[in-house]
Description:
The chain is an alpha+beta fold. The protein has helices at residues 19-56, 64-71, 75-85, 100-113, 130-144, 147-153, 160-174, 197-200, 233-238, 241-251, 285-310, 324-344, 353-366, 378-393, and strands at residues 119-120, 123-124, 179-189, 207-214, 220-224, 257-260, 270-271, 395-397, 415-417, 433-436, 444-446. The protein is built from 14 helices and 11 strands.
Amino acid sequence: MADKPPEEGYISVVDDEPEIFELLKWDSSQTHKQHETNTLEKAKTPEKKLSKAKEDVDPFDLSDPAFIETYRLSKDLARGLCEELKPVMPDSTKSIEFSVECKVMAALTFFASGKYQKSLAGKTDPSITQYFVSTAVMQVTEAMNHPSIVKKYIHFPHLRNERDIIKTSFYMKYGMPNVVGCIDCTHVPISRPEEDHKRHFNKSFHSKKVQIICDSDLNIISVEGKLGGSYSHDAILNQHAVRIDLESLNNSGEQCWLVGSAHYSQKPYLMTPIPKITKKSPVSPEKYYTNMHSQTQQVVTDTIKHLKSRWKCLQATCNKQFDPQTVTKLIVACCVLHNIANRRGLPVVPMTPAEERLEAMKQKVANTPISRKRVEDPIGVQARTMLLDRLWNERRIAPESCNNGPKKRQKKDKVVVETMPPVMPHPQMMQPQMQHDDPSKRPRIVMNNPTYSFGMAPGWGHYPQH
Length: 466
């Protein structure tokens, strides 16, 4: 019987391996080798590009104005910040470690813009990813909240000589005695928290209500950003240690007070505006005090504005992706950076008109209206009345220099106000005079010799306490 012819394409498993198997083996081996070569080449390529990019992208190659506009700090301040943060930076969990300098610059870019920028010095870097920027922001923020860093740059005056310097500065600039700081609150948005969301909701959006106290030079001397947006101004201050310090100082005989907005209740340690006094009110001791208070209170308003202009991550349109604890740390970090830049006198990058309008609108709807039925502290009202009478009584009208006899004083006639006790002038410092053109406005301070030093005027004390 004849064997059945094999089917087409049939290969016997008994016979030796056919030639096609040899060709397949050769092709497979060559393809595998080529694949390994391509894989190695592809693996090496990013490293070369990465190292090249790191060499080409250096933020410090920018011009000084461009560097400040991008990072809000000067080059020497940025380098100094990197050195300060190195000992307190948390350990990285990434396999590829980046330098502290790279992390700090990436974090500064986020703080200044409020956005995750995937570039340094305006150049795209393949090593900069959103994951890296977010990690860098968290690590740098954590480092800047280290107690050693916070205490160095944000410090409330606990020593008598520190308070005297701040008091004297406020008195020289605004004519208000015994002021150790201006206080106000601002809202910084957060994501909806899983717990206590009612305490963080301010009837408009979820936020942290940040209490800021500043000196006359717009430096932040105290910041509290742990409480939610539903708390009132008074509630935040009542829970803060500054209240205890000020109460103790006033009870011991040293007059110290803060200057606060109408959202606060009048206290012995907190001076607030007198209700129902407007620009159209007639000239009176109450009107005079209110004008002086308003111009002094403007200091903290400018401080908050500069803070949010420099570090846009605190504006009302940002931070909605961060949890409350992270936002609290971001607030402290930005306040530290604000003081670093402000003490050096670096320029403030202003908000755009749209940003400024949006920020003002958000803050207005977030704050609860001022209660008309608020009960004032009688002791606080008495302290404000004593200050009001003192400021009014220390004013005097300068005599006319002409020989035509007395005449009715016109608006253009100058009024000289002396609120400081007569002291012997120091050789390097002349006694200041305080002038104004309108008795309802705050007096201007005219220095005959602007060169002075706090340490070279021991006869001042810091001004009369009573």
